[in-house]
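Per your request, structure below.
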C-alpha cells in the first residue's frame, strides 16, 4: 500500500489541517450548531486499505502544546465567524486516526483539551475500537460535556472487513461498544458504502446490515460514507477492475432504508458528492434532499429527473 501512495500534503503542526461549522440533528431531535476540527498529528498506525486520511498527517509526533494551539486557533476562527461560541452546541475533534492514540494526541494534553472545550455540551472524537480503554474513561471524566466516540465499523461483510487491514473484528467493535455503554458514553459508527471486496450488487444490502449492527451494538448515530478512490491503493484496485465507487443512487437507497429510527440517527456523508453522480441536472436537488433527510430523519419524495428513467 505504501508504494502506491503519492506525497502527503505539507502541514503546519501548530494548525489544524481543516475546520468547518455545521448543523446536525442531535439525539433529542434539535438541529444544533457544531464545530468540526481536523487536528494535525502523527499518522495512524493501522493504515487501512481504503483510507485516504494519511495525506493530511505527519510522520512524527507533535510537540507538547501543539494540539492545544490547533484547538485554540479553530475556536478563534469559529468565534470570528459565529460572533460567539455560545451558539455552538457540539465539537468534533477528528484527527485522521484515533484520538486516544498516544502517538497522535499525547495524553498529557487531555486535561488542557478538556478545559478548552468545557463550553460544549457534546464532544465527539474518533477512535479505533482497540483503543477504547482507560484513557477514554479518564477523558470522559475530565470533560464537562457528553462524550461521544465514533468508531469505524466500516462493514460487517466478513471477507471485506478482514482484507481492509483495519485489524478489527466484529467482536472487537461489540466489546468496545459495551464498554462505552457501561460508562454512559455515546457511540457513533462509520459505515462504508461499497468498500473493496464487497460486490457492487450486494453493497447496498451490506451497508444496511452494517447500520443495523451498529444500532444493535448501541450506536445512537451512524454515518454512511461512500468509498472513494484517491489514496493510491484503491486506484490500483479500480484499474484492475476490483473496485468501483458507489453511485448516488446507492447512497440514496441506503439512506431511505435506514433513517426513521428515533433512537438511531443515520447521516449521509455528502462531502465530494458530485463524484458519485452521473447527472449534473439533478445533483443539487438530490444533495439538498439528502441534507434535509440528515436533519429530519424522514424519507422524502425522490427527485424526478430524466436520467432516472
Amino acid at each position: 500500500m505504501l508504494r502506491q501512495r503519492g506525497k502527503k500534503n505539507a502541514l503546519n503542526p501548530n494548525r489544524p489541517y481543516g475546520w468547518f461549522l455545521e448543523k446536525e440533528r442531535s439525539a433529542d431531535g434539535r438541529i444544533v450548531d457544531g464545530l468540526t476540527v481536523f487536528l494535525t498529528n502523527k499518522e495512524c498506525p493501522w493504515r487501512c486499505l481504503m483510507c485516504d486520511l494519511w495525506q493530511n498527517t505527519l510522520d512524527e509526533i507533535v510537540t507538547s502544546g501543539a494540539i492545544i494551539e490547533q484547538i485554540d486557533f479553530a475556536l478563534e476562527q469559529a468565534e470570528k465567524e459565529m460572533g460567539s461560541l455560545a451558539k455552538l452546541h457540539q465539537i468534533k475533534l477528528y484527527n485522521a486516526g484515533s484520538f486516544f492514540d498516544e502517538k497522535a494526541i499525547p495524553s498529557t494534553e487531555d486535561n488542557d483539551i478538556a478545559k478548552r472545550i468545557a463550553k460544549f455540551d457534546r464532544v465527539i472524537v474518533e477512535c479505533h475500537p482497540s483503543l477504547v480503554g482507560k484513557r477514554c474513561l479518564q477523558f470522559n471524566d475530565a470533560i464537562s460535556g457528553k462524550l461521544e466516540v465514533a468508531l469505524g465499523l466500516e462493514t460487517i461483510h466478513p471477507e471485506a472487513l478482514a482484507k481492509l487491514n483495519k485489524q478489527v473484528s466484529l467482536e472487537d467493535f461489540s466489546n468496545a461498544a459495551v464498554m462505552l455503554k457501561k460508562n454512559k458514553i455515546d457511540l457513533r459508527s462509520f459505515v462504508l458504502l461499497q468498500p473493496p471486496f464487497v460486490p457492487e450488487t450486494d453493497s447496498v444490502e451490506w451497508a444496511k446490515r452494517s447500520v443495523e449492527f451498529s444500532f444493535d451494538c448501541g450506536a445512537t448515530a451512524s454515518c454512511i460514507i461512500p468509498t472513494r478512490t484517491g489514496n493510491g491503493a484503491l486506484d490500483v484496485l479500480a484499474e484492475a477492475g476490483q473496485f468501483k465507487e458507489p453511485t448516488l443512487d446507492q447512497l440514496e437507497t441506503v439512506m431511505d432504508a435506514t433513517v426513521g429510527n428515533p433512537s438511531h440517527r443515520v447521516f449521509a456523508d455528502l462531502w465530494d458528492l458530485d463524484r458519485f453522480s452521473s447527472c449534473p441536472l439533478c445533483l443539487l436537488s438530490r444533495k439538498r434532499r439528502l441534507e434535509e433527510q440528515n436533519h429530519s430523519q424522514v424519507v422524502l419524495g425522490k427527485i424526478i429527473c430524466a436520467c432516472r428513467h
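The chain has a mean pLDDT of 96.

Regards,
D.
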